[in-house]
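TODO from last week: model tRNA (guanine-N(7)-)-methyltransferase.
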Amino acid sequence: MNATPLPGIEDEHGFTPRPEYKKKSIRSFVIRAGRMTPAQRSAFERQWAQYGLSLFSGPLDADAAFGRSAPLVLEVGFGMGDSLLAMAKAEPDKNFIGIEVHPPGVGRLLNNAADAGITNLRVYMADANDVLSDCIAEESLARFQLYFPDPWHKKKHQKRRIVQPAFAQMVRTKLTPGGVFHLATDWEHYADHMMEVMSNAEGFSNQAGEYLFAERPDYRPITKFEKRGERLGHGVWDLLFEKHA
């Protein structure tokens, strides 16, 4: 198992988990306030040694981290972690890596993964762009998942959207030939932006057909958030783009 230092700082409350990132002028996320439960905080101390990976450890040896060789799936922004945990349970033949900057969500996933005895899951609490740049090997991912990223819907903030041409090309370098970049959003304008970026991205083809959105694959669980949105009449758009062989 990879044993990495707990990411965070010592302050007046004791140890406080904090995401890892390199200094930059524009980030695709903000650290939102959120109170951690005692169980979530405790999970960092008890489970990070088993599940945690560090940005500052450099290039990841996935086979060593998981103790086996298996197709690798990476998800950016797993929120509270319920759907990622469900996928790891449902596809034990694959290894899963999750990246998230929200400490309560990471703590919840660590706690629930340990309770469920999950062994095919590892976690970064770090900036996704930094992890992709510094840690993930080229042509190592069978699937890259980006579900419900922050839409940054105000025009002045749209430069912060993670889905940009340069990001698409970074993902392409990390996917194996035939690997899939799976995006999902419940913001129609962002869905159109995603479709425009990905349709013009070199080295990808749309599995559903040119400029067509895909049906939700069975492997992507419907989250509570998504079900609530459907009851309110909100749409969800999935995009499946395959890297050319």
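Done. The mean pLDDT is 89.
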